[in-house]
Amino acid sequence: MRIAHIITRLIIGGAQENTLFNVDDQHHLFNDEVCLITGPGLGPEGSLEPKARERGLDLRVLPELRRSLNPLQDWSSLKAIRRAFADYAPQLVHTHSSKAGILGRLAAHQLGIPSVHTIHGASFHYGQNVVAQTAYKWAERRAARWCQHYITVCDAMIDQYVDAGIASRDKFTTIYSGMDVDHFLIPRRDPVTLRAELGLAPTDIVLGKVARLFHLKGHEYLIEAAPQVVKAVPNVRFLLVGDGILKAAFQVRIAELGLTKHFVFAGLVAPEAVGEYLHVMDVVVHTSVWEGLARVLPQGSIAGKPVISFAIDGAPEVCIPHETGLLVEPRNVPQLADAMIRLAQNAALRQRLGATGKARFTEQFRHQNMTRQIREVYAKVLADR
Fold it and tell me: Domain containing 109: what range?
């Protein structure tokens, strides 16, 4: 197969890691001809571009492709994408993310190339203003005409797109995100040593969150719940893995609450090192208010940790109440605090939930399985054409 992938930015993030595994597997395991087209990775989130180049992948960066909405810039982006597709001449285009997803499908349609789009998270979501949400729903309905099939990272995304009138249910296939599960099964570094380096005592109960310090990731709810948790469990510590534009604001608020000594900011961590930090944690907490299916939920489970999550999007498909973790109403700070206290105080419950998640999700989330299923979708689309 000859496939062109396109994503808006190749920053360190779940959708980007998922896409990179897909492209890497196609190239190295399945001997496909494949290229990855992206815009410049601007911002403090870190970049996966060096990893793509290190793996010998065909990476093509389009300066015109930017994340922000701007009609003139978007017109330039469309022309650049169309030129890139025409130059590469793929059999099929696989689009990812909102901006690249819409412009990429349009460009492929204009060139008569079939396309598949992965919904890593709905382009219309909580936190958008009415104008932006309406615009994205309209654009998605238009783009559905140019797309032969959708891949979703969880069943919840199918429901959202069908309910919004984007496309009929038969145009969707759920394929869970792939990852290198060995990084989460067995840490490369000794957790006891890493704990000490982070200033965490052996007796501390560590509640950890892995996410960019960015809007919609929900760190503010964790921070506001912290006083209640610390009052009930004085030896609790919060480990935040990731970086972003909201770091300073979070540190100010934590200081206002008098909890600076209870928080550890680990900073930006390479994707392959995330497992080391998960093994330092006693509980994995994820408080995003918009996310298709956060990769850290299966990652935490595979590492044998119980997970706590807001009940959004695909989270209930992995954070299964009282089996692998505890679900909380979105943005409900008292409920979040209660869930963290419950697990912080009950080691036996932590062990049971973590063991169940590890047994349930390890094989399901191997990246090789994901890519094999995705190639089956490609083959069907190409056969139907």
Answer: 2-178+366-384
